[in-house]
Specification:
Helix content: 40-55%
CATH topology of the largest domain: Rossmann fold
CATH architecture of the largest domain: 3-Layer(aba) Sandwich
Shape: globular
EC number: 1.1.1.67
CATH class of the largest domain: Alpha Beta
Number of domains: 2
Radius of gyration: 23 Å
Structural class: alpha/beta
Number of helices: 22
Strand order of the largest sheet: 6-3-2-7-8
Strand content: 5-15%
Catalytic activity: D-mannitol + NAD(+) = D-fructose + NADH + H(+)
Protein name: Mannitol 2-dehydrogenase
Oligomer: single chain
Largest sheet: 5 strands, parallel
GO molecular function, one term: mannitol 2-dehydrogenase activity
Function: Catalyzes the NAD(H)-dependent interconversion of D-fructose and D-mannitol in the mannitol metabolic pathway.
Amino acid sequence: MPHSTITPRRLNSEALSHLPREVQIPRYDRTNVKHGIVHIGVGGFHRAHLAYYVDCLLSQFDLSEWSICGVGLQPFDASMRDALVPQDYLYTLLERAAEGSTARVIGSITDYIFAPGNSEALISKLAHPNTHIVSLTITESGYYYNENTHELEVEDPNIVADLTTDGPPRTTFGYLTAALGRRFRAGLKPFTVMSCDNLSANGNISRKMLISFARLKDPEMARWLEAEGAFPNSMVDRITPRTVESDMTFLSSEFGIEDAWPVVTEPFSQWVVEDQFSDGRPPFEKVGVQVVPTFHDVERFELIKLRLLNASHSSIAYLAYLAGFEYVHEVIRDARFQTYIRGMMQEEVKPLLPQVPGVDIDDYCNTLLRRFANPALKDEVTRLCLGGSGKFPQFIMPSIAEQIMIGSGSLRRLALSVAAWFRYLNGVDEKGQEYKINDPMAEELRAKAREGGQRPDVLLGVNCLFGDDLRGDKRFVRELTTALESLYHVGAMKTLENYVQVC
């Protein structure tokens, strides 16, 4: 690690040659590359994952067609634009571990389009022949996918507006449909739509939702897209905490880089992607990506990751928040939480998972606990609490539903995780202080949590989140009710202690 006496430099193209030798920088010509990839939703995870892999490709191989044009669709994306543009779209990837930290300047993003007020520029970029892949990290809510019906939320006001008006699109599907319509009429191939979100069957969902939308907006194009389009499924994995001021201070003092929005991540990274592309792709496998032939191959890796890593994060999140924890590594070092999570993974989830050649589930669980315990990441519990309505149907409920089908397996710990979320949705902590719930359905869910109180039936009645198999199962409802009552009566830590002792 460099000495802390370095004079910091504001990150931009000119500063690269003046950075310490320990900092890895892009050596390729960033002025002579084409935008083969347009990425919608440039946040921390994209910059720690896909943009990192593309930077590796550009650095190691003579590629000139695969740089990234970033896109921000929402007004809040102006902050990312304002951070990247003055830095010539460069940013720093700070890998942190207990053993030490490394810094790498990523150069794979070479342009950024802020869609509000620039809708035509974005549609033109998407429709351009150089655009071969449109990748997405738009969060679960950006797909307008109804978990109960498995159909597009056609009554959502944003979808309705994009279907019935000719103004600037509001949604990702509105923009994609407009651009694909131009490509169809110009005789071009459809670009590949590549989801990098933590959704089970993310490619299949992307395909179904976009084609459903396109059938209502542009039926002729929809038939072409259905026949010729590509929507690879993928499994993505890299813990990426929210960047905080102390990260920027550390980067400046230890590596001499002043970066308006660096990305902090762990050394571990994995990406499994289905080899289904309609208009070419870069050789991802050359930089460690597991490119597999079928959705089934992705699905097996994905199931393990979503049901263990993501489910564990969600199971930690709300109990830990209610108990007053700030960082994930502090939570997992608490013997009660570690016993709870290990028991959930081993006894309630592992029996449901497929066997994957080369994957040892016990070793995977142990690795997860080590990753969670990384103190250098300073991963905040509040980050794990974001968007529970998009996470629980993906990460927790499927395991509960399968345990219900089996009829004999334990689901007590899984039920406790749901109960903790329900208790959290009340919006008032154990000291009587209100807090903000960051969730697309926050207003509705908070109202139902307060109406139901210790009774889970009101929240279980939200049809877009819960199916009849869950709310109609007496054993699950009984376990959920018991856990929820305990959380209200004795609090998160005492409830956890009781569960750890009994389980």
